[in-house]
């Protein structure tokens, strides 16, 4: 039986800031039980500079139930501060999982990869 090594598909979690001051958590790689602690630590950080948060999942190639759980835990933390969470993702497997689990009813999910600045979210620069 094949085993999974966390180093095979590392998870990258980078926090940047939108010009409006809203933190943007950019996640890339596989978000699963082996890597979820990195994201959970960022999402549950009470020291984030704004009550609102954008989670950019456009670089996520796989997400399991632990990854989904970390998103929900992050939303709870942000809601407790009176903020909102927006999730960016591209159409595909991650968006389908969010829809299947009905997390699209919990988060504002933007599948276009772009949220208007007045909504306090991120516009990813083009390469």
Automatic annotation (TrEMBL):
Residues 12-109 form the STAS domain. Pfam families: STAS (PF01740). Coiled coil: none annotated. SUPFAM superfamilies: SpoIIaa-like. It comes from the Bacteria. NCBIfam families: ant_ant_sig. Belongs to the anti-sigma-factor antagonist family. This is Anti-sigma factor antagonist. The lineage of its organism: Bacteria, Bacillati, Actinomycetota, Actinomycetes, Propionibacteriales.
């Amino acid at each position: 039986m094949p085993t999974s090594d966390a180093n095979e598909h590392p998870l990258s979690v980078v926090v940047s800031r939108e010009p409006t001051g809203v933190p943007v958590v950019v996640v890339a790689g596989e978000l699963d039980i082996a890597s979820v602690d990195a994201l959970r630590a960022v999402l549950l950080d009470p020291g984030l500079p704004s009550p609102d948060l954008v989670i950019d999942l456009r670089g996520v190639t796989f997400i399991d139930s632990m990854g989904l759980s970390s998103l929900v835990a992050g939303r709870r933390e942000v809601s407790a501060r009176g903020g909102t969470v927006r999730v960016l993702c591209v159409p595909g497997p991650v968006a389908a999982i969010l829809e299947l689990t009905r997390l699209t009813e919990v988060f504002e999910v933007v599948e276009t990869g772009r949220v208007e600045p007045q909504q306090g979210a991120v516009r990813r620069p083009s390469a």
